[in-house]
Amino acid sequence: MRLQCEVEVRSRLLPTCGLRGRAKGAHALLSLGRQPDRPPGRGGPSAGHSVYLMVCTARDRAGARYKLKENIEQFFTKFVEEGKATVRLKEPAVDVCLSKANASNLKSFLAAVRLAHRGTDVEALPLSVLVPAKTSEVEKPKTKMIITSRRDYPLTKNFPYSLEHLQASYCKLARVDMRMLCLKKLRKLDLSHNHIKKLPETIGDLVSLQELNLHNNHLETFCVALCNSTLQKSLQFLDLSQNKIKALPVQFCQLQELVHLKLDDNELIRLPFKMGQLSLLRFLSAARNKLPFLPSDFRNLSLEKLDLFGNPFEQPNPLVPSIQLKIPLTLLESAARATVNYRIPYGRHLLPSHLCEDLEVAKTCQCGNACLSCFIQTTVTMNLHYVAHTVVLVDNMGGTEAPIVCYFCSLTCYSQFLDRYLQSNR
């Protein structure tokens, strides 16, 4: 039986080798095997076989061997579900500390070690041959792979399961390789400069993914399923620049761990409606798109750097509003406003899904109340320094202002806004 993990052997006889002073474990291969207690001599047979634990590392591939029968003082298995355990030996007086092991394999390995300690018949144990480990078995697992040409792309071999950083750029990939989606430890995935047109929903199964770079591909959409996946809790960096995306879904703003978002050189005609929900966002660039104005929620952002250069922003005109107000309000509108304003719990187990979706994208009037399909809409000028410390000029004229949408739930609210606007522009 063999087990690959990180191992540290600590002597209990040395006072400086306590738990606080121990170094990080080295990747190792552990083997359970039998060998003669005493080699057979010319005068007679050997004294029998005993079970040994052999620990092989990159520095010591021949391995250190420890006899197990009646030689274990204690097992420490409180964190075995996390792939950690310690075997305390009597002779020599050492602790064999195991970590970063597969939990299931570790349990099986420890069970066999217990049987060996009790003196179970060696024929009943799943033993390995005690031979020096191969270099590939004791080298630290590969965590980073960078591929920058189609020629170097692996077509027949799988990616190492231990990868944390994978870059596959300039490989002419038309789709995301499904083998990548099995890399559960992946934290950074760079697929820039390819020909990818669509993202598979299963990218959301990469539970550790923090950085996703899709710069310079052929993407036209960013699917809702990714916004509802585990990426909500992990994704911090997203580069969708230089694609063909026209709009991002409303659910995009559920990726609330985002810190860095790049949307440059797309065909965006609007930014996500609930942009202000991205409370951790600090770096946003959406230069050279087709944005006519910014969403109302944009004013809730708190950025360090903002770049919106090269968008065809419209000239705001608060005196020419778009009125979509029905008087009196419909029963549906009144009920929806009350649900949002009074924070009444709702869900798809209580309401049809389309009503839930409407409630989730409710607009907010400047008075703080909600409105859904009945509202007055206009645009006003906002200085982008209001939401960002550093602002790249919006145009070649040195401007840092852009139009932002405002919503009003009633004629009263719009009239009050209009009075303030006219007084400030006298």
UniProtKB/TrEMBL annotation:
InterPro entries: Leu-rich_rpt, Leu-rich_rpt_typical-subtyp, LRR_dom_sf, LRR_domain-containing, PIF1/LRR1_PH. Pathway: Protein modification; protein ubiquitination. It comes from the Eukaryota. It is found in: Nucleus. Transmembrane segments: none annotated. Pfam families: LRR_1, LRR_8, PH_LRR1. Keywords: Leucine-rich repeat, Nucleus, Repeat, Ubl conjugation pathway. Its main location: nucleus. Residues 1-127 form the PIF1/LRR1 pleckstrin homology domain. One of its GO terms (cellular component) is cytoplasm. Component of the probable ECS(LRR1) E3 ubiquitin-protein ligase complex which contains CUL2, RBX1, Elongin BC complex and LRR1. Interacts with CUL2, RBX1, ELOB and ELOC. Substrate recognition subunit of an ECS (Elongin BC-CUL2/5-SOCS-box protein) E3 ubiquitin-protein ligase complex which mediates the ubiquitination and subsequent proteasomal degradation of target proteins. ECS(LRR1) ubiquitinates MCM7 and promotes CMG replisome disassembly by VCP and chromatin extraction during S-phase. May negatively regulate the 4-1BB-mediated signaling cascades which result in the activation of NK-kappaB and JNK1. PANTHER family: LEUCINE-RICH REPEAT PROTEIN 1, PTHR48051. This is Leucine-rich repeat protein 1.
